[in-house]
User: Fold these one by one.
Assistant:
Number 1:
Amino acid sequence: MTDRATWTELCEEVGVDRAHHAYDAARLAFELGAEVRTLREAQGWTQTQVAERAGMTQSAMARFEAGGRIPTLPVLARIAAALQVQLSIALIPQPQQAPER
């Protein structure tokens, strides 16, 4: 197991402009992949084991865990089933920001 940087640390390291429109999509991909990796490692499974159970290749699982891919909902459902967890998707209101003066 290797130590992974947080999304914020990774962005700062490579100098990503967080105002860029692709930032949110990349953050989502990174966080989804990190969560799947955490769940997989907690069960003691390899990428290959989870990938086979989810009907995908190990290399596709590796790309997903690294944040290189945003999976479709059916793929997320298969990964969740492979990890024996329930897929839950939520839309949460953002906190109100104070108006600019």
Number 2:
Amino acid sequence: MTETLTDARVVRAIELIWREAALLDAKDYEAWQRLYTEDALYVIPIDRDAEDFDDVLNMVHDDARMRALRVRRMTEGYAIAAVDSAITVRTVSRFVPADVGDGSVSIKASQIIVAYKRGRHDLWAADVDYVVRLGAGGEEDRLARKVVRLVDADEAVPAAGFLL
């Protein structure tokens, strides 16, 4: 792998990932879902080694329809996930380009989320695999895949009330 973090395509991918983190911390879920391609997947597997998410149990396995439903639950009406949601601050770092091309960038990163709710701080740590589809001809870059591999995914994980 000769691409580095200074490769313009990798920089674009990282900037999109950071923008996503900022939108999630701001609870701007409508803008968040617009960052995704129509065919994108957002997955939180229980098995950290899983690759075929259709045949295993996942905490989240969202296509565009499911992402839209999740956003609706987080933003409309009285939903405990929205009304009593945590304040979050997340850091996404340790970027390692896995596959870099003119049309897309696959990149691995770490994510730490500190969530504050009801006088208590919780820590969520994960390895995250992203595929960023690079826009061409004035199109914006978009997330084509995000797989959040929680470090404690095989343990009892509490309801988050926010998106990872």
